Amino acid sequence: MSPQMDPAIGYVFALASFMVAATWLIAVGFVGLFMRRKLAAMRRDHGPLPAPEANALLFYALAVLFWPAGFILGAIYLGKPETALQGRNCIAIGLANLSAVVVLTCVGTTVAAFMAPGWFSGL
Fold this sequence. Notes:
single chain; mainly alpha; 4 helices
């Protein structure tokens, strides 16, 4: 016999998932603001920034497949005026991948809590 569940568990998981997703999106906004201000300062100090190099697609593919590499490459490249735009793009790709994971996990948890609350009966 399974233990009796509190009917409010779905709302608890929905609220927790919303809080995680909202906090993550706020953090992504701060990172985006930092990147924008960093590029504006580089444009002010060094003039127009050059377009990404021809091998930039290789780094973008690496950032798509392995997002920690996107953050590392982005941090390295964002510090140099020659590769600043490439660094911004690598970080943005890494953030997009990780944001999709966070938001889809939160949505999945909320849907599971409402559709199959018995899954959470052992918690």
